[in-house]
Every structure is written in C-alpha cells, then in structure tokens.
Amino acid sequence: MSVRPNAFQIDATASGLTAVRHRAGCLARWLRLPGAAAAPDYLSIRYWHRSDSATASPSRAPVLLVHGYAGTEHMWHPLRAALAGAGFDQVIALRYNTFRADIHRVADWLVEQAHRTMAACDADGVHLIGHSMGGLVVRDAVQARGLGDRARTAVTLATPHHGSPFARFVPGPCARQMLPGSEFLRSLAARRHGGSTRWIDIEGEGDRVVAAGPAPTETEMVRVRHPSGHRSITRHPDVVARIVDELIGVDDRTADQFSLAA
User: For the segment 83-111, what is each residue's pLDDT rounded down to a tens digit?
Assistant: First the structure.
C-alpha cells in the first residue's frame, strides 16, 4: 500500500545539514525575524519503510512519535532506525509549534493522525512514544481524547508527570500547563485509564529538567530508571533497545490473542 503525502505529510530522510537549517528556521520564526516564512503549527512526517526486508511483519502496529517542548522530529533518528530494522515499517513523527501550542490541541492532532494512519495501514492499533512534554500529550490522547482503546503501547520518556518548575521560565500555553499543580495536570490525574494499553515510563537519573517523582497512579505504568540526561535518553542504545523490545512483545502477544480468538 502506498500513501500519497498531503500538505501535512512529507517523506523525510533528514541529513545533519537539513536538521541545522530546520532549527535555524524555527528560531527565526520564533523571533519573528524579517523574511522568516510562516510554518504550519502542526505537521506529520511519515517514514514509510517499504522494503523486502525479512524483518518486516504484518503484525507490527504503526508507531507515532511526539517530541517535547522546543524539540523536533530529528531527535528520533536512532529510534526510527532501530524500529525499521525490527520490522516496524510505518513510523510517524509529529512536529508542532511548542511556543503557540496547547497540549489538548496537540493531543487532538495526535488522535487524528493515529486514526488516519490506522486507516491507511489497515491496522487496529498504534504504539505511542512521547518525550518530555510529548509524554503528557500521549497521556492526554489516551486518557481523555479518544485513543484509549487503540493504543497498544504508550511510552513516556523523561516526562514531567507532576510538572516542572522550569516551565515558569519559558513562553507558551503548554508551558503553563506543565507547571506543578496546574489545572491540566490535576485533570489528567483525575482520569483513570483501565484499558489494555501497556504503559512504560522511562526516567533519566541524570535528568536536570524533570525531577524524579512517583509514577502516575491513574495508569498501570511500568517504571524504568536509566542513567541518562533529559535529551540523551531518546538516543541511548539501551533505551532504544528496551523500547523496541517492548513494542515487539506487545505486538506478538496481540497477534497470539487474535490467533486464539480466531
């Protein structure tokens, strides 16, 4: 099956130079420098790995990646490569303007892209992975915005589940939502999720942005500690391998359950 890109979908094989240009462009737009072209607030980048690789498997669910505050989709390169090597041939990275975005709006965009992707791939579920604020987007999408029965796995990396005091020093509505004790965090904590989603939270022991805290009690979340920093956690080989193994395990169990039911 081939998917035609639309205005919100582009094929991407970003080089290091492309990543530098993109970040420079983002900074120019944020500072509103003359000549800086306006960019869409929300964009989905599809990495469709259609190959004859023996690792490809029809049981592998699509994977959606959500970066955090001031992040970009380029941070996912090591994980994308590992997923492709393990047979996950449909990976989608969300890009959004963190300075203007609201977490609820990003979560709604994630839900929309998840449903589009499942329809395009004829899949009945997805895996969601979010870094930092992206983990809160994933939780909101699953717990409150309509993906509760479709998310096979929800992985949160270095996520401020209880907020971050650093949020008071950066701009944007989503920063206000990440303040400890915010209305958004209280509302999220009040929504219990009793579905079949496997929740994995990976913390970095060297994280200086998000302090360690108790796991959210409204989900059955497996907690993993790793000696990584806030950003390096997304590309550490051990973390990448753990995520890929978790997704494979969930897909294999789902396929077994389907076979038994049939």
Answer: 999 999 999 999 999 888 899 999 999 99
Q: pLDDT averaged over the chain?
A: 84
42-65 burial: b if 16+ Cβ within 10 Å, else e:
bbbbbbbbeeeeeeeeeebbbbbb
Can you tell me whether residue 61 is helix, strand or coil? coil
Structure tokens at 61: 């669910």
Structure tokens at 253: 């169990």
User: How does pLDDT run across 206-233, given as a tens digit for each residue?
Assistant: 888 987 777 777 677 888 988 899 999 9
184, 113, 108, 119: which is closest to 146 by C-alpha? Answer: 108
DSSP codes of every residue in 40-58: -SEEEEEEE-----TT--T
- Model pLDDT, residue 55: 52
Q: Which two tokens stand for residue 186?
A: 């209280």
> Where does residue 159 fall: left (phi above 0), alpha (psi -120 to 50 degrees), or beta otherwise?
beta
CA–CA separation, 43 vs 236, rounded Å?
A: 26
Strand order in the sheet with 63-66: 9-11, 42-48, 90-96, 63-66, 126-131, 151-157, 198-204, 221-226
Helices H, strands E: what count in the chain?
A: 7, 8
Backbone φ, ψ for residue 164 (5° rounding): -140, 130
Q: What's the predicted TM-score (pTM) here?
A: 0.82
